[in-house]
Amino acid sequence: MSAGGGTKAIIAALVANAGIALAKFGGFLVTGSSSMLAESVHSVADTSNQGLLLLGKKTSQRKPTEEHPFGYGRDRYFYSFVVALMLFSLGSVFALYEGYHKIEHPEPLSTPWVAVVILVIAIALETFSFYTAIKESRAIKGDLSWWQFIRQAKTPELPVVLLEDAGALFGLILALGGVGLSVLTGNPVWDGIGTACIGVLLGVIAIVLIIETKSLLIGEGADRAVLGDIVSELTRERVEKVIHIRTQYIGPDELLIAAKIGLAPSLTVAEVAAEIDAAEARVRAKVPAARLMYLEPDLERATEDTPAEGAAAHHE
Q: What is the distance between the alpha carbons of residues 178 and 189, in angstroms, rounded to a whole number?
């Protein structure tokens, strides 16, 4: 996926969440609903999160320096990890606290119809944002299931936006349910229960994102399919075997490859250099993300790792 991939989904989510946050907070001031307050904070956090994702995409494009010779591609992973932490702290923890408070000290809602109208409009806007993220994700998801895509994607922004939008949409439904049940039963405790459910939902989503983005941040290797393509392209012409190989993503579109390759001992130095250049060109043509490649010619030894064993640990 290109560096620009996911930008449309992020901007759509940012615009939707900014407008929704203002509407929800206004609804809270009118109704006093804790569900509306929790959803207001949730939308403010989401708006900030989308800003951080855009910042990460921007800073990751900086040129390599002496201090960072491999560039700043992991900025995108770092800011995605910060987003996950913010979703947990500002979203989940606050909603759980507010829900507990409203359950312990329930207060009747005033003009609840205002909250209902705002929530229905917010659901429509979040549906649009969610649809945009799904549409952009389908272009790179391929045959993977949505869960596999979230687990295996090396580009962090789209999985983050997908889960954020899904959480926002279901959170709005929970808030609508809490307000609606409070009105129907005359018991404001339901508003607090809805708020607490929103907190649990956001907590689960945040934990999934924290686990996935942390894995990317500390370094993931190429998956089996990509690794197979790399080995296949290397072992052509006069490369007899890949003795061992290590891979690691240093950014969503930057794969580092280091490998020992077995060449015929009869080759001259010039022929070895030409074979290495040709092997690198073949790999880059098949795997465009393979921008950094270091191939070492060697003779096979019995103690060396096999290509599969030598591959960098990757996320299943």
A: 8
DSSP 310: H
Give the CA distances from residue 205 to residues 158, 160, 208, 274, 310, in Å, rounded to whole numbers and listed in that order.
Answer: 14, 9, 5, 50, 33
What's the domain range around 251?
224-310
Q: Please report, rounded to a whole number, the percentage of residues in the chain having pLDDT higher than 70.
A: 93
Q: How confident is the model at residue 305 (pLDDT cuts 50, 70, 90)?
A: low
Report the predicted TM-score, pTM, of the whole model to 2 decimal places. Answer: 0.76
Question: What's the rounded Cα separation, in Å, for the pair 25 and 300?
Answer: 67
Number of Cβ within 10 Å of residue 64's Cβ equals 11
138 and 186 together in one domain? yes
User: Is pLDDT above 70 for 316?
Assistant: no
> Assign residue 142 a region: left if phi > 0, alpha if psi is -120 to 50, beta otherwise?
left
In DSSP terms, 263 is beta-bridged to 239
Kindly state whether residue 15 falls inside one of the protein's structural domains. Answer: yes
Q: Give the separation between CA 92 and CA 204, rounded to whole angstroms.
A: 9
Domain boundary among 172, 188, 218: 218
CA–CA dist 86, 18 (Å, integer)? 16
**Number of folded domains in the chain?**
2
Are residues 120 and 19 part of one domain? yes
279 and 179 both lie in a single domain:
no
CB half-sphere exposure, 90, CA atoms < 13 A: 17
Higher pLDDT, 309 or 253: 253
Tell me: the pLDDT tens digits for 43-56?
787 788 888 888 98
